[in-house]
Design brief:
The chain is mainly α. It contains 19 helices and no strands. α5 crosses α8, α6 runs parallel beside α17 and α8 crosses α11. The chain starts with a helix and ends in a 7-residue tail after the last helix. The structure holds magnesium ion (MG).
């Protein structure tokens, strides 16, 4: 006899993986997906078809999109995160589809201009509940996407939503009911969510080496002070003397990723075996996350991260861009918040609606939603439409 469809979706998974049969389901009840799709596949597909996902292509990771076509954007970053997480997921027999969905959605709430934009918007929202990009990603999938006849948002499964909400302040967690409880009770999220988090870190640390070199912000010899880089650089140079720099860099970066991913799988496997969680509930109740590097690789990865912070993210060329970006975000916020008539109709309407319900905090939230949803180039264009008298209105 063929197994029930929900059990079939879970075939081959480890007992401590997220099983669809045990899913806490969706906020709005829906009929099961078509015969050939599972619930988590449906989550992933909804994310890929969302408007917020398409906007990621024009949102900055570190380098503003118009600086060059070859740098990572939030979209290519999200794809790299998903790809790393899928490999690890499969090796550990976790739920690869759920993990992929979480990764593809993890940056949906990001503002234009990367972290600079998020910091500026958080500053603007200081007296109105603040702005956290993780919480905003959840807000995008729960409320802001307008695609379905019967509900706002994408109506994703509980497990996908909790994975998207990677971090959250205690104050905000208290407003989220069941979903916020783990932050207050210091419980762990399922392994798929833990993995999405580490895959994010692996992706950006390694691709920012590549982008930083491409932009000329750092050189290979400067990176020679970073153990993880130096080890593979020396190996590639020894094996392929005289290799062209572009190939050399790729050979080094791919070896770095391979080393940390392999270590992540091995070290996590060791921890899983030691903790021996019987199911997801047991994973949640553990005092520490299980997904992580060995101590040696964790230290090397931290060293790389520190190098990038000092030499790339704080490079004067990056800082010039980020201060410009922050100015754009601040001035957009100020203009809209002070005069809602400057907003396009639908955003003005939601600002008035939220203001009626939550006072000026609601008004500010609607403005933040509008700005957070902008791509880099749209934010720049809007800024010039609002502040430059020579620029015509679109
Ligand atoms: Mg990310």
């Amino acid at each position: 006899m063929a197994p029930a469809p929900d059990r079939a979706a879970d075939a081959g998974l480890a007992p401590y993986a997220c099983h669809e049969a045990d899913s806490r389901g969706r906020v709005h009840a829906e009929p099961a997906p078509a015969r050939y799709r599972t619930e988590y596949q449906r989550d992933r597909d909804r994310i890929v078809h969302s408007t917020a996902f398409r906007r990621l292509v024009y949102k900055t990771q570190v380098f503003v999109n118009h600086e060059g076509d070859l740098y990572r954007t939030r979209l290519t970053h999200s794809l790299e995160v998903a790809q790393i997480a899928r490999s690890v997921s499969r090796a550990l027999r976790l739920n690869e589809t759920l993990c992929e969905a979480i990764c593809l959605a993890h940056d949906l709430g990001h503002t234009p201009f990367g972290h600079a934009g998020q910091d500026a918007l958080n500053e603007c929202m200081r007296d109105h509940g603040g702005f956290e990009h993780n919480l905003q990603s959840l807000r995008v999938v729960d409320e802001l996407e307008e695609r379905y006849a019967e509900f706002a948002g994408l109506n994703l499964t509980y497990e996908c939503r909790e994975g998207i909400l990677k971090h959250c302040s205690a104050k905000n967690a208290a407003t989220l009911g069941e979903l916020g409880r783990r932050f207050l009770e210091r419980q762990q999220p399922p392994l798929e969510a833990q993995l999405a988090n580490v895959a994010d870190e692996i992706a950006y640390n390694n691709h920012d080496v590549d982008d930083g070199l491409r932009a000329g912000l750092v050189t290979c010899s400067e990176l020679g002070g970073v153990k993880l880089f130096a080890r593979h650089y020396e190996e590639v140079e020894r094996r392929y003397p005289g290799i062209a720099e572009r190939r050399l860099i790729h050979e080094v970066v791919r070896r770095m990723i391979n080393e940390v991913v392999t270590d992540l799988i091995d070290a996590t496997q060791v921890r899983i075996e030691a903790a021996h969680p019987a199911d997801v509930a047991a994973v949640r109740a553990l005092p520490q996350p299980l997904v992580g590097f060995s101590e040696r690789v964790a230290a090397e990865h931290r060293e790389l991260k520190r190098f990038l912070q000092e030499r790339v993210y704080r490079h004067f060329r990056v800082v010039r861009m980020t201060t410009k970006a922050q100015r754009v975000v601040r001035e957009l916020f100020r203009a809209y918040f002070d005069d809602l008539r400057l907003l396009p109709d639908e955003h003005r309407d939601s600002a008035r609606r939220l203001e009626t319900r939550h006072g000026t905090d609601g008004r500010a939230r609607a403005v933040a939603d509008y700005i957070a949803g902008m791509t880099d180039r749209y934010a720049i264009l809007e800024h010039s439409r609002l502040y430059d008298p020579n620029v015509p209105q679109g």
